[in-house]
Structures are given as C-alpha cells and as structure tokens.
C-alpha cells in the first residue's frame, strides 16, 4: 500500500480524487492501492525548555543560556492533533511506500519530515513536487516523483531556521524580560521580529527628530505651462528675490526643444512580496490578508503556488502559456490580440537560472466562481500581470523645453504615450503620497512650442519646507524587509538584494501581525507607528546582532545557502549558539538599571448601565507571558519563579499575581 500525506484535508481530497482513492475512512481516503491522509499544518513542534530539564521550567537569569545538547520534537498538545497522528502513525507502519505531498517549500518539507520522524518511518519515501493543484499538475507530479533524499538540504535549511529561532527567541526573550521587564511585562525578542521592529522605531525617531528647513523655488507660467528655474532650490529668500526681480516685466523666450523616444517593458510577474505590496497600495489589504487570499486562490486551483520569491517562469512553462491565456475567458478582450500568434519569450520572464523551487505566481486557467471581494482583486492582479508580459513594450516620447528670461534659465518636461502596449492591460495607479519631493507629473502633455518664440509670463517665488521621511506602510515595510533595510525601487536591483532579505516571503506577513499582537506597533490609517513599549524595547537593546536588518539578512542568506548545498547547517547553528552565549554574557553584565515600563492599551470606556450606577471593581492590568500549554498546575511560575501555577474558572495564572507577577492567562 502507498500512503500519501498532504498538509491539509482539502489538498488530500484533491490528490485522492486524482489517484482514485474515493473511499472515506476515519482520518484518510482509500482506494486503488493508495491511502491518502493529511496533517493540519504543524502536528509537531520543537520541544519547549521544560521538556529538556526541570531546571528550565522557571524563568531565571542564572539558567541562561538554554542550549540543549540535542534538539527534539513533540506532538502539539491538542486532542485533534493526537487523534490524527495516531491514524497517520498506523498507516505509516503498514505502508510499503510513502509519498510526501506537503506544500512544495521549506516549511512544507519540515512539517511532513517531523511527522515521519515522530512516527519512526522505515519504508522508502518519495516526494511530490507541484506548483498548482489542478488535476493535470497532480497527475504530472505523480509521474515524476523524486526520492526524498533529493530534498534533504531543504529540510536541513528549515530545521536550522526553526532551531535558530528557538535558540534566539527563547533565550533572548527570557533574558530581556527578567533583566529589564520588571517581572510585569514579557519582552518578546525574535530573530526577524526584532530587526523589523527596529526599522519602524528608527524611522519614527528620524521623523520626530527631523528639523524642517525652508527653501525657495522660482518658477514661472508661460502659455499655461509651469517652468521651474534650473538653479534648483534657493537657500535664502534674498537670493530668490534677486532673480525674481531681475526677470519681472521681461519676456520669456523658448531656447531649446528636445524630444526623446523611449520604451517601457511590462511589469514583472508577481512574487508574494510584490503582490502584497501592490494589494496594500491599491486595496489597503494587509500583508496577511493578501497571503491568506492568494493561498485560498491556490487551494481552489485558480492560481499557482503563492509562497515564492521569484518573478520568473521556467522554460517548461512557455509551451503551456497559450492554453492558459485561452482559458482566461473573463479577459477575452485582452487575450484576443495574442490568440493565434507566437508569444514572445523574454529573458525578463523566462529564465531557468532565476527559478529554484517554484516559478512566479500565475493563473492556472481554471475559471473562478464565487470569489470574495479580496479574491476578485488579487486574482485580477495576477491575471493582468500574466497577460501583460506578452504584450509589446509601451512606447512614449519625453519632451523637454528650455526657456530663459535674462540670465535665469527655466525647464519643463512632459511625457506622451505614443503606443500604449502593455498599458492597455494594466493601468498604473497614481499614488500622490508616494511622489518624491518636488516631483511633477511626468505624464503631462505639453502644448506645441517653437524655438525662439517669446512672450509675457508670470513669475513667482514660493517658500517651501523640507519634509521628514514618511512612516512605513505595510507595502514599504515589506519592500524594506525584502532588501535588508534598504528601500529599493529598481526591480533588477531588488532581485539581487533579495538574497539578503530578512524573513521569507511566506513569513513576513506573520512577523508584522506578531508585532501588532504584542502591542509593539500600531496602525494609523495606512502608516505603521511604534507604541511606547516598542520604542522602549528597541531603545534598551544595544546588541546590533539582535536588531540589525543587515546582519539578520546575512543569516537569511546563509539559510538559503544551506538549501543550495553551499553552507553547512552545523556551522550555522554553532555560530548562533556562540552568538546567543555572547548576548547573554553582555546583558548580564549591564549594571545600568534600565527598565521598560509595562504599557497596556486602554480600552474605550463603556457607558454606565442605567440599571446600576455602582461600578464593578477593576482588575489589575497584566500582561500574559507563556502559552497555556506550559501551564501545569503546581509548577513554578514560568515568569517570576516565585509563585506556582493555579487554575481559575477559565484560565491559568501565578499565585503571586496580586504581589507583582504579571503572568495570567485570561483571568
């Protein structure tokens, strides 16, 4: 019997249908020589500190750093998980062969490997590697199963990432909480989370400390067209007024006209980050909302695998493109000009060297039905970008007109679209808030000027002020995370810098959501701003290793190199262990008596009830520390180490919570 294991029940059903395993059993499908079962995402996780030794139950500085000699895994404490694992384990023990059908990526590999490891699998294991869940793709994937050993480096990279996050997160969180948190607030530190918070806090300080400076711009209006002095900004009003006075009452003369034609290639296909960026700009969808939406479209077979960091397609996709375009019937008016013609094969679209695990996100050709608002918008973005890459370049002409009044020179320019090309498919959206200081509308159409013409004009000197940097939005933060702290607009340069990005495309949204949940950042309209707690936390971290986006980007690059057989997982973990030990030593020696004040967001006050004017007694404000899975009745409190765990009506807490310990879960 061949046992196939997928990452979700819905995916398992799709695979079972293709394989002919149509008989439903408890926890799996069966038929035609196959048994198809599933996980619910992670069934296993790395063991927690107290699983290794009783000494690590209580939070104490004297017991840091916590570095297990050998890391182990355990089942997640959940009845549903335990029940499904027993089913999987039973199937594995009787299997002649197992097919790993997990998501084709680092996390998917880790999820399934841990389950097989926990079940002590002995039989041969194959790997299904597909980029879409269509019937055709599943059939093709089963014809080309790989040996699981081919993906060993992928597993080692995922395992190194998980262990690295455990080492830094567990040790640094306890270290900073005990040293600076006053036993009232857990200070959560993470390998990617903390550098991301630092980006937001640093930008906040840049804005707060910004000192605006006045400058003056001399311009004039000639034939309803604004010309700007080529001298640029005037540092003093006196200099500007001197030139203004010299040109008042004098005629404006056109001295030169030049027109330069150019072309603009279609935008690249979407990877996950660029899709999240665009959907945040256009539809105000958060990074997490976009991820959940494109994941839903993938599971419904409408788009390909979404958790990708490439904007390229492999050469083997090219022959399939005409058929995909033909099936996009909702876009017939856009695909009809391409029908019956040989599609262009640009190196900016098809490049095997730029594709590793998966290609860019594209539609599968399956016609969607019953989409939500978010699904409609995200699907439309994916389809239009796919169609646009086969359209010709946009052709435009840029006209620059120079003028002069006395000795003062002026300039204006305009851009005219000659042949729309791909712009027939994608209409670029104007984003006023993203225009750079002093940037004019480059696509304005100019009237026809003649060299040597002259006439009256209306000069003016305008006072302006320098502007502070803009707060991060989710879109700009994602781009900055992608390029290790540098906001880069150029697409080709971004591709190069992705190697050193912090986090993975699939995890960046979760990192941002975590910062919200831990009350480290807040959103004001579209802007991300740090809370007082977030500002204080970054302020007390002096170790660059914990908060530098560039250094974190170097670790991310090493993780990618592990996946590519270019770096040893053992060396990566040894470096992290040494780093954690050094951080613990440095912080323990800090005698500055710095502390972070516990900050709790106040909830809006409710109107007093008419039935009773007697206010209810207020409960002390507290902050939870550890998950309920750690709460074993009678054990030492995991936060203060003084009290012990007690159980209330609906949750757990510390017996010392009235005396200053802040560890409570839901009281």
Architecture overview:
The chain is α+β, with helices and mostly antiparallel strands and 667 residues long. 36% of the residues lie in helices and 16% in strands. The two termini are 50 Å apart. The protein has a 7-stranded mixed β-sheet with strand order 2-3-4-1-7-8-9, with helices on both faces. Strands 15-12-13-14-11-10-16 form a 7-stranded antiparallel β-sheet, covered by helices on one side. Helix 4 (106-118) crosses helix 6 and helix 6 packs parallel to helix 20. The chain contains 20 helices and 20 strands. A hairpin with a 2-residue loop joins strand 17 and strand 18 (527-530). The longest helix is centred in the first third of the chain and has 29 residues, at 152-180.
List the helices and strands and how they pair.
Elements: E1 2-6, H1 9-19, E2 23-25, E3 28-31, E4 34-38, E5 44-46, H2 49-52, E6 73-75, H3 79-94, E7 97-101, H4 106-118, E8 125-127, H5 135-143, E9 146-147, H6 152-180, H7 193-208, E10 214-222, E11 225-229, H8 237-247, E12 252-264, H9 272-283, H10 287-299, H11 321-327, H12 332-335, H13 373-388, E13 394-405, E14 408-419, E15 454-455, E16 458-465, H14 474-482, H15 491-497, H16 505-517, E17 521-524, E18 527-530, H17 532-540, H18 544-547, H19 549-563, H20 569-588, E19 645-647, E20 652-654
Helix pairs in contact: 4-6, 6-19, 6-20, 9-10, 9-14, 10-13, 14-16
């Amino acid at each position: 019997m061949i046992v196939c294991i997928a990452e979700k029940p819905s995916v398992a059903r799709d695979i079972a249908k293709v394989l002919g395993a149509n008989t439903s059993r408890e926890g799996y499908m069966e038929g035609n020589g196959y048994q198809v079962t599933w996980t619910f995402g992670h069934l296993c996780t790395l063991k927690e500190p107290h699983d290794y030794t009783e000494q690590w139950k209580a939070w104490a500085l004297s017991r840091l750093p916590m570095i297990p000699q050998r890391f182990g895994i355990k089942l997640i404490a959940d009845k549903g998980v335990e029940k499904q694992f027993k089913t999987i384990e039973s199937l594995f023990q009787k299997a002649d062969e197992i097919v790993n059908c997990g998501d084709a990526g680092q996390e998917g590999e880790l999820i399934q490997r841990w389950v097989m490891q926990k079940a002590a699998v002995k039989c041969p294991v194959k790997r299904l590697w597909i980029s879409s869940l269509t019937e055709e793709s599943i059939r093709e994937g089963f014809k080309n199963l790989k040996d699981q050993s081919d993906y060993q480096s992928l597993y080692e990279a995922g395992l190194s990432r998980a262990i690295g996050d455990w080492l830094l997160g567990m040790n640094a969180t306890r270290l900073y909480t005990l040293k600076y948190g006053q036993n009232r607030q857990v200070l959560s530190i993470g390998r990617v989370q903390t550098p991301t918070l630092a980006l937001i806090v640093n930008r906040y300080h840049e804005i707060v400390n910004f000192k605006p400076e006045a400058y003056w711009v001399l311009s004039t209006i000639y034939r309803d067209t604004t010309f700007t002095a080529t001298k640029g900004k005037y540092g003093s009003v006196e200099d500007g007024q001197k030139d203004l006075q010299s040109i008042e009452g004098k005629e404006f003369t056109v001295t030169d006209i030049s027109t330069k034609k150019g072309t603009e290639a279609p935008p690249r296909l979407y990877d996950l980050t660029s899709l999240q960026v665009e959907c945040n700009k256009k539809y105000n969808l958060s990074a997490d909302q976009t991820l959940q939406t494109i994941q839903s479209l993938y599971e419904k077979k409408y788009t390909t695998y979404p958790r990708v960091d490439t904007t390229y397609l492999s050469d083997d996709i090219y022959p399939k493109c005409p058929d995909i375009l033909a099936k996009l019937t909702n876009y017939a008016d856009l695909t009809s000009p391409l029908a019956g013609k040989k599609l262009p094969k640009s190196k900016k679209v098809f490049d095997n060297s730029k594709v590793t695990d998966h290609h860019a996100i594209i539609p599968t050709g399956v016609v969607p039905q019953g989409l939500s608002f978010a699904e409609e918008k995200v699907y439309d973005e994916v389809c239009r970008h796919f169609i646009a890459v086969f359209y010709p370049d946009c052709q435009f002409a840029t006209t620059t007109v120079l003028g002069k009044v006395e000795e003062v020179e002026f300039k204006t320019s305009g851009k005219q679209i000659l042949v729309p090309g791909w712009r027939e498919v994608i209409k670029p959206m104007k984003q006023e808030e993203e225009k750079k200081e002093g940037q004019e509308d480059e696509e304005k159409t100019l009237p026809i000027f003649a060299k040597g013409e002259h006439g009256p004009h209306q000069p003016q000197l305008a006072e302006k002020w320098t502007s502070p940097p803009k707060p991060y939005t989710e879109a700009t933060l994602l781009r900055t995370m992608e390029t290790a702290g540098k906001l880069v607009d150029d697409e080709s340069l971004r591709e190069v810098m992705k190697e050193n990005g912090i986090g993975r495309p699939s995890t960046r949204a979760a990192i941002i959501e975590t910062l919200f949940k831990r009350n480290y950042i807040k959103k004001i309209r579209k802007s991300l701003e740090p809370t007082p707690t977030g500002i204080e936390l970054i302020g007390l971290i002096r170790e660059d290793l914990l908060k530098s986006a560039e250094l974190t980007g170097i670790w991310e690059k090493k993780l990618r190199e592990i996946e590519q057989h270019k770096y040893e997982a053992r060396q990566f973990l040894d470096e992290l262990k040494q780093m954690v030990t050094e951080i613990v030593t440095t912080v323990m020696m800090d005698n500055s008596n710095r502390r972070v004040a516990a900050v709790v967001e106040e909830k809006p006050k409710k109107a007093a009830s008419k039935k009773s004017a007697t206010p209810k007694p207020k409960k002390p404000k507290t902050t939870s520390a550890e998950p309920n899975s750690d709460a074993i009745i009678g054990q030492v409190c995991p936060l203060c180490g003084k009290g012990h765990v007690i159980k209330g009506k609906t949750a757990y807490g510390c017996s010392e919570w009235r005396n200053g310990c802040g560890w409570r879960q839901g009281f």
